[in-house]
Design brief:
The chain is mainly alpha-helical. It contains 6 helices and 2 strands; from the N terminus they run H-H-H-H-H-E-E-H.
């Protein structure tokens, strides 16, 4: 077992040495550092276990579902009848069409993996005079995606693993 652990450490260090320049290039060193700091707490939690208040989880799910619905309704109001907010938030094609229609030049964030699922990429607006309503639409899309990730990954993930 000790031999396996030593090999695991060596391989981990070799991988870190190989991938660290890429991690620095895409600007993810802060994420890596925060995960490193949290590692011991996660390890301890997995070994000892943690108490989960299921009533709180249910309340949080309800609150998040309400906030998701409210955000999607606000987004639909901003988009008007031309777009469906239910599909707009996950369609980079529709978002791109919307931005082109509103004469907004965009650049994909250099901090995101360009090979990632296109719907998961964030957009950076490259012109300072972007109309306020377009900025608000993009802020609502980002807010919705953040909330949806918390709901599906965190809260529903807790439920599946209990």
């Amino acid at each position: 077992m000790l031999s396996y652990a030593f090999k695991d450490v060596i391989y981990t260090l070799l991988l870190a040495k190989k991938f660290m320049p890429f991690i620095e290039k895409i600007g993810s060193t802060e994420i890596l550092e925060s995960e490193r700091k949290a590692l011991f707490a996660f390890y301890r939690s997995e070994r000892v276990g943690i108490n989960i208040d299921m009533n709180y989880i249910e309340e949080a799910k309800s609150r998040l579902r309400g906030e998701l619905l409210k955000t999607k309704e606000k987004l639909q109001e901003l988009l008007g009848a031309e777009y469906d907010a239910r599909t707009f938030t996950n369609s980079s094609k529709q978002i791109g069409e919307y931005l082109v229609k509103n004469n907004v030049n965009v650049l994909l964030s250099p901090k995101k993996n360009p090979k990632a699922d296109s719907a998961s990429r964030d957009y950076y607006i490259s012109q300072p005079d972007t109309p306020a309503h377009v900025k608000e639409v993009l802020e609502q899309v980002k807010y919705y995606k953040d909330l949806n990730k918390k709901y599906t990954t965190d809260l529903l993930g807790y439920e599946r693993n209990i």
